[in-house]
Amino acid sequence: xxxxxxxxxxxxxxxxxxxxxxxxxxxxxxxxxxxxxxxxxxxxxxxxxxxxxxxxxxxxxxxxxxxxxxxxxxxxxxxxxxxxxxxxxxxxxxxxxxxxxxxxxxxxxxxxxxxxxxxxxxxxxxxxxxxxxxxxxxxxxxxxxxxxxxxxxxxxxxxxxxxxxxxxxxxxxxxxxxxxxxxxxxxxxxxxxxxxxxxxxxxxxxxxxxxxxxxxxxxxxxxxxxxxxxxxxxxxxxxxxxxxxxxxxxxxxxxxxxxxxxxxxxxxxxxxxxxxxxxxxxxx
Amino acid sequence: xxxxxxxxxxxxxxxxxxxxxxxxxxxxxxxxxxxxxxxxxxxxxxxxxxxxxxxxxxxxxxxxxxxxxxxxxxxxxxxxxxxxxxxxxxxxxxxxxxxxxxxxxxxxxxxxxxxxxxxxxxxxxxxxxxxxxxxxxxxxxxxxxxxxxxxxxxxxxxxx
Lengths: 284, 160
Ligand SMILES: Cc1cc2nc3c(=O)[nH]c(=O)nc-3n(C[C@H](O)[C@H](O)[C@H](O)COP(=O)(O)OP(=O)(O)OC[C@H]3O[C@@H](n4cnc5c(N)ncnc54)[C@H](O)[C@@H]3O)c2cc1C
Ligand code: FES
Ligand code: FES
Hints:
The complex is a heterodimer of chains A (284) and B (160).
Chain A: E1 7-9, H1 14-22, E2 27-30, H2 36-41, E3 49-52, E4 62-64, E5 68-72, H3 77-82, H4 84-89, H5 91-97, H6 103-108, H7 111-117, H8 123-130, E6 134-139, E7 142-147, H9 148-151, E8 152-154, E9 157-158, E10 165-172, E11 178-185, E12 195-204, E13 207-216, E14 223-224, H10 226-232, H11 239-244, H12 262-281
Parallel strand pairs in A: 1-3, 2-3
Antiparallel strand pairs in A: 4-5, 5-10, 6-7, 6-10, 8-9, 11-12, 12-13, 13-14
Helix pairs in contact in A: 5-8
Chain B: E1 3-8, E2 11-16, H1 23-30, E3 49-52, E4 55-58, E5 71-73, H2 86-93, H3 103-116, H4 122-128, H5 140-158
Helix pairs in contact in B: 2-5
Flavin-adenine dinucleotide binds at residues 28-36, 38, 73, 100-101, 105, 109-110, 112-114, 116-117, 122-124, 160, 165-166, 190, 192 of chain A.
């Protein structure tokens, strides 16, 4: 299948890219193209112009900034999963990126593209939400920070405004004692998550001191499982963890589709949260 | 219309392309590289896999303009002097194909896998080929072929 016609520009700087985007409301950013090109080929989108940010070196790469890790929007999934800085400073993202799609798609698909696309079935949005990442949006009028909790607005909709480009994300480092896991449930290897759970857990003396849990594909946006986070505080590792996870699907509105009905997704959310928390805590 | 320069299987081409032209169509319809097939509409099957600047990519999911200045290797660029590449030979020996439609993509993905891990386990091979679907063989012979191809390639390198 062949996409409908569009214009194509490859700006030499972020400022120029913002200008190109700001001057045409039907223009779209082209990053890795691994979500956009399938959309264009199926003619689900008709942009007037693609602004290719694929060669903007400033947007690419991972940087250790002391208390946080900065990940440029154009860093590919493959680079994120292999980056020593990510593995050290925010290992949850390396674990999660490794579970996105397949190797060929991970070579081209980008960290920023996955987030800006705001697909609730995408794996990285939940992981960044669990880590309270801070999104850096660039536009002709400068930069703006958006907390993860405000970035995802609705199905395929982020809080980026017209003319804004996601430049990168700051991931605050969690100190010692934290463990991480991303539990993804899908039917075939390269498929999207039916439900996914991103977990960060801090252990102290055989109990859980603190937990951060975010869910993939349990509503139109990724969501934090706040009820479980509260219930897990002070819980000893063992059977009580499962008990604390029963509220995992509280306040969610999971979709119905080919793969699962909402009640099955609610069931999965409980089971997978329990698994993710145990794995993050290093418990059997 | 943008003009691009792209090297495919060692030969440099200059082409005027519509922005919407997909890399796979550039390869097949302009350059006659029909060794790279299209197997799906959804970027799932991997039949169209090529190496783009040395890394595997699904050529149905890349615009030709995005490949401007890049180096592309297709299945047609693997063999040398009329003989098959060791990975192609291994697919042949192990009967790793029936209709052969997925084979170009499988071979390219397998070669990409060896770039990261020259001696992959069966599990690593299965994961490395997760983006390539075969509707005929059931994968067992494909996995065996990749093991064999890896061994042959390892020997080829270590031979004096
Ligand atoms: C077969 C297949 C399986 C997949 N499986 C998974 C999976 O299991 N899990 C998963 O998470 N993802 C999966 N993906 C999607 C993949 O992760 C994509 O790489 C990702 O969703 C989009 O990143 P991209 O760089 O390719 O963005 P593009 O496709 O280039 O862009 C996607 C959208 O985001 C916008 N955009 C991109 N970058 C920016 C930016 N910096 N600023 C503003 N807007 C921007 C674009 O305008 C576009 O609307 C799959 C894709 C395919 C084809
Ligand atoms: S044709 Fe490219 S993935 Fe199927
Ligand atoms: S051999 Fe027929 S699809 Fe793989």
